[in-house]
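Design job #97: recover the sequence.
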């Protein structure tokens, strides 16, 4: 197994791993170590099916299911253990421009951390590029550890105990998407997470930022959102970001405890992009939750 860094702060290319086969304990440990160091690993040439992706993902923890929060079971194209971030419906046709699923998925173009809207946020996300596009559709990753390290001492002290509220309703609302059913609004009620978290393996502190943030507990909302916007601009400066340009059968995995990411625009009305994400659950809540 060989790991080659892709930037100074974040991302590495890992070769010598065949995801189609069961991994031995030392191989799993090597992937975990690579993730703790680089936060994003690119494994090229992994021509896998859904069962192989699920088996690989289970090496790293319990699966996060129900990722397609705005899609009804009858509309699912894939097993519920997958987040279907393609532009295809369950008949294999491209999503209509005004389809609810397409509207909701546009939120993936905002900087976010997967499942930060859950009480227990995500650990690893693993994305398989089954069909990729030649233009657009890049995935960008921002290093929240490096962003935290670059803050001045006064800001670090100010945010040490800050708690934010996260919800899918907040992130989709930024784009004007408000088409949530009553039961969806209940399921998407805000959860609370610390703004500064410590990685359980590396021990490094990082910013826990996401488009899913809608306020800071105890702050007036306009002040809170202006401050979060400042932090987002800081954390996504080019020196903290790795841009992944997809080739077919890339498998990219990232640590949501240390990164934010977003997908870039592509011609999803005319081109097919089939990428499938599996996710593992994190270690536990980052802050005390409301009794509700």
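Job complete. Output follows.
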């Amino acid at each position: 197994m060989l790991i080659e860094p892709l930037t100074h702060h974040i991302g590495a290319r890992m070769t010598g791993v065949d995801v189609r086969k069961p991994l031995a304990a030392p191989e799993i440990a090597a992937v975990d170590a690579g993730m703790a160091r680089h936060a994003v690993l690119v494994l090229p040439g992994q021509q896998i099916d859904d069962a192989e992706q699920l088996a690989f993902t289970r090496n790293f923890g319990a699966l996060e299911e129900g990722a397609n929060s705005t899609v009804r079971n009858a509309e699912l194209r894939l097993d519920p253990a997958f987040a279907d971030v393609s532009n295809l419906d369950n008949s294999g046709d491209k999503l209509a421009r005004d389809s609810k699923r397409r509207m909701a998925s546009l939120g993936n173009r905002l900087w976010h951390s997967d499942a930060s809207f859950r009480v227990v946020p995500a650990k690893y996300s693993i994305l398989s590029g089954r069909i990729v596009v030649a233009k657009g559709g890049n995935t960008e990753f921002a290093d929240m550890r490096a962003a935290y390290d670059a803050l001045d001492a006064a800001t670090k002290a100010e945010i040490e105990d800050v708690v934010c509220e996260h919800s899918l309703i907040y992130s989709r609302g930024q784009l004007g998407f408000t088409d949530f059913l009553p039961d969806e609004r209940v399921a998407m009620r805000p959860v609370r997470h610390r703004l500064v978290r410590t990685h359980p393996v590396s021990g490094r502190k990082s910013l826990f930022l996401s488009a899913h943030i809608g306020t800071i507990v105890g702050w007036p909302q306009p002040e809170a959102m202006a401050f979060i916007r400042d932090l987002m601009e800081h954390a996504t400066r080019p020196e903290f970001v790795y841009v992944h340009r997809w080739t077919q059968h890339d498998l990219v995995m990232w640590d949501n405890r240390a990164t934010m990411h977003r997908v870039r625009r592509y011609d999803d009305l005319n081109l097919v992009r089939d990428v499938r994400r599996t996710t593992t659950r994190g270690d536990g809540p980052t802050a005390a939750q409301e009794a509700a």
